[in-house]
Amino acid sequence: MNGIERVQATLTGQAVDRRAVAPVLSLYGARLTGCPLDRYYTDSEFYARGQAAVADLFQPDLLFSSFSFASVGAAFGGNLFFSGNQAPNLRRPAILSPEEWDTLVWPRHDTNPHLLYFQETIQRLVEAHGSEVLVAAPVVPPFDVPTLVMGIEGWLRLVLTDRSRARGVLEKCVPFFVEMANSYFEAGAACVVAPCGFMSPSVVTRDIAEHFSRPALAAALPQLKGPIVLHHVGAPMLAHLDLLTGLPSTLGLAVDRQDDLDQARAIAGPDLTIFGGPSVFRMPGYTASEIEADCRALLENRRQDARFILCTAGPDVPWETPPENIQALRRTAESFSGRSVPA
């Protein structure tokens, strides 16, 4: 089976030759090619070269397009900057006060260079690798767009102090998100992946997650032209995981390493695919054998779960991670005794 066949079989609960493996290696391509990050995250040709190196060295079953959400903030007018071996950040958001939302100029997906970059990277990845692997595209969910426009503290303050105005902002973010995600599907992405910050128990209360954030997803997802994976955004999600179920267009849930997989499956039900794996925060400091042991324990736990993909839990795999630690995921999947998962 190739990556496309393996992932598609997993999504439908069919038998596979081995578990699908999907480490998030958006940043790591720059390390493999020695590409300056300011070029890697602004020029789709150089990003594609990095992902070609990722594909050659690690042979994942999914490739990810650029995981650079700060660039979305830059599209609104935020100040993008690069520091160390990591994806860009925002030095200053586009706006600082709630009143500025009224006069904010929203960027267009078909003309803004920061947003066109995302579509171009997807197109290049699909052209180069689309016959073997699926391309997944990280996307900012509607309730997290404001964190990139005015900063997370300003957005949280607005939600807590003026829910009516915050809902008005969120209503504008839904069509922006829909257009952004659909532009990725039009570029060839097989699915989009949305790290749900304003659904996370580490960020917001259950009241906010349930009565403010979830309705925005419920309104937006039926408008998508393809499927979505809802992501734990690098922190335990189990306490709010039920709020991510029963939504249109959702094919899977990515959970944190600290989330109990049995409980996650019970909450998700039998039809959603669960993505889980070793924490990226431990990838640089662990040995390859320790990563293998962790992956083996996860695969043993999911032995009878046909809809499970071994991934990395969290954001991007850090730059300083040894290559052998990343290779440990695929090596474990290939050597695991439960190679064929029954439907």
Give a written overview of the molecule.
The protein is 43% helix and 11% strand. A hairpin with a 7-residue loop joins β3 and β4. It contains 13 helices and ten strands. The protein is of the alpha/beta class.
Percentage of β-strand residues:
5-15%
The radius of gyration over CA amounts to: 19 Å
* Biggest sheet record: 8 strands, parallel
Name the average pLDDT.
96
End-to-end separation in angstroms reads: 16 Å
The global form is globular
Low-confidence stretches: none
- Which oligomeric form is depicted? single chain
Strand order of the largest sheet: 1-10-9-8-7-6-5-2
Structural category is alpha/beta
**Would you list the SSEs in sequence order as H and E?**
HEHHHEHEEHEHHHEHEEHEHEH
Please count the beta strands (DSSP E, at least 2 residues each).
10
Which bin fits the share of residues in helices?
40-55%
Query: With helices defined by DSSP (H or I, 4 residues minimum), what is the helix count?
Result: 13
What is the strand and helix layout of this fold?
Layout: H1 3-11, E1 21-22, H2 28-33, H3 37-40, H4 44-58, E2 62-64, H5 70-75, E3 79-81, E4 89-92, H6 113-129, E5 134-138, H7 145-150, H8 152-161, H9 163-187, E6 191-195, H10 206-220, E7 228-231, E8 250-254, H11 261-268, E9 273-276, H12 288-301, E10 308-311, H13 323-335
Parallel strand pairs: 1-10, 2-5, 5-6, 6-7, 7-8, 8-9, 9-10
Antiparallel strand pairs: 3-4
Helix pairs in contact: 4-6, 6-9, 8-9, 9-10, 12-13
